[in-house]
Design brief:
By secondary structure, this protein is α/β, with parallel strands linked by helices. It has one domain: Aldolase class I (TIM Barrel, Alpha-Beta Barrel), CATH 3.20.20. Helices cover 36% and strands 18% of the residues. The chain is built from 11 helices and 12 strands. The protein has an 8-stranded parallel barrel, surrounded by 9 helices. The chain has a two-stranded antiparallel sheet with strand order 6-7. The radius of gyration is 20 Å and the shape is globular. The two termini are 38 Å apart. The structure holds ligand PBG. Ligand PBG binds next to helix 6.
């Protein structure tokens, strides 16, 4: 080390902003919205502090609140009035997400993304069609190819309702290609696909599963979501999705998987999204409630770090809070 090497020269207040490598803007952020067909009033979600399940009648008001903070995009999750083995309310023309999408696109200028999955709509809570088999262990399995058709129908029904983008999150092999073809066949060539490409079987989804009532009734998701131990496999997953026509590639969760965000940034030219999931949000809130962390500071630092790792867009429950302060 030479005493002439002084990186601190560029850390004065005058120059620090000039040499800053990363910045956050409200237009990078996507706010999750939960629309609930089982309630007439807004219900606070205890495990995702500051967020609510809103009835369809409140969906427009909720999205307007988000738009006022400067956030331009929302991703919709639905809690249906009833569930069945095939998750049929996921692809019903009058389903909760479809109804909300129709109203939001008619009455706001928000960019609307539909989450395409079956787990909130199936009575068993899995992301696809379940088949029981006595011979093999486990005694049940989520059938890949039988699920594809239902995901295609879900995406088309959301597009018909006016969704600008669909985001398949079921980790069904071939879902992106199936959805692209179904959308194109229905005349929705302009609807984009954001693939949950590297979606890990993570314990950080706990608060969301309470919020959306989407926890599996038996077993877990480890035979379709990715093993947290795997890094190279994420590139393979993203390659398959890119080949099938994904417009945006997503990594989920975000903070524990920044190596994966960074890998995908290097390997692909497509925009990279990262989902700062419910558990990442809840743990900061819990620590802040105890006086152990400064919530505003750690929220900003979290999102900045996700961008620094290579994400272009971030799905986050902090969207409104952070956008308001930018
Ligand atoms: C549904 C879905 C999940 C999340 C987003 N879409 C839950 C899951 O896969 O169990 C989690 C989001 C979060 O934790 O914030 N397929």
């Amino acid at each position: 080390m030479h005493l002439t090497d002084r990186p601190r020269r560029l850390r004065t207040d005058g120059v620090r902003p000039l040499v800053s490598e990363t910045s956050l803007s409200a237009s990078d952020l996507i706010a999750p919205v939960f629309v609930d067909a089982t309630t007439d009033e807004r219900v606070p979600i205890e495990s995702i502090p500051g967020h609510e399940r809103v009835p369809v009648d409140e969906a427009v008001a909720r999205v307007k609140e988000i738009r006022e903070t400067g956030v331009e995009a929302v991703i919709l999750f639905g809690i249906p009035e009833s569930k069945d083995p095939e998750g049929s309310r996921a692809y019903a023309a009058d389903g909760v997400v479809q109804e909300a999408t129709r109203r939001i696109t008619a009455e706001t200028d928000a960019y609307v993304i539909g989450d395409v999955c079956l787990c909130e709509y199936t009575d068993h809570g899995h992301c696809g069609v379940v088949e029981e088999s006595a011979e093999t262990a486990p005694t049940w399995t989520v059938k890949n190819d039988e699920t594809l058709d239902l995901l295609g129908r879900t995406a088309v029904s959301q597009a018909e309702a006016g969704a600008d983008m669909v985001a398949p999150s079921a980790m069904t092999d071939g879902q992106v290609g199936t959805i692209r073809e179904a959308l194109d066949d229905a005349g929705h060539e302009d609807v984009a696909i954001m693939a949950y490409s590297a979606k890990y079987e993570s314990a950080f989804y706990g608060p969301f599963r309470d919020a959306a009532d989407g926890a599996p009734a038996f077993g877990d998701r480890r035979h379709y979501q990715m093993d947290p131990a795997n890094r190279r496999e994420a590139i393979r997953e993203a390659e398959l999705d890119a080949d099938q026509g994904a417009d945006v590639l997503m990594v989920k969760p975000a903070l524990p998987y920044l190596d994966v965000v960074s890998d995908l940034r290097r390997e692909f030219d497509q925009p990279i999204a990262a989902y700062n999931v419910s558990g990442e949000y809840a743990m900061l809130h819990a620590a802040a409630d105890n006086g152990w962390l400064d919530l505003e500071a750690v929220a900003h630092e979290s999102l900045l770090s996700i961008k620094r790792a290579g994400a272009d867009l971030i799905l986050t429950y902090f969207a409104e809070d952070v956008a308001e302060r930018i």
